[in-house]
Amino acid sequence: MALEHAILVSLLEQPGSGYELARRFERSIGRFWTATHQQIYRVLKRMEADGLVTALEVGQEGRPDKREFSVSDAGREVLTGWLHEPVQPEAVRHDLAVKVRGAAFDDAAGRAALIGEVSRYRDEHEELLARYLGGEKRDFPDISKLTTGQRLQHVVLRGGIAYERMLLDWLDEVLAELRKEA
Question: Transcription regulator PadR C-terminal domain spans which residues (predicted)?
Answer without folding.
Answer: 92-179
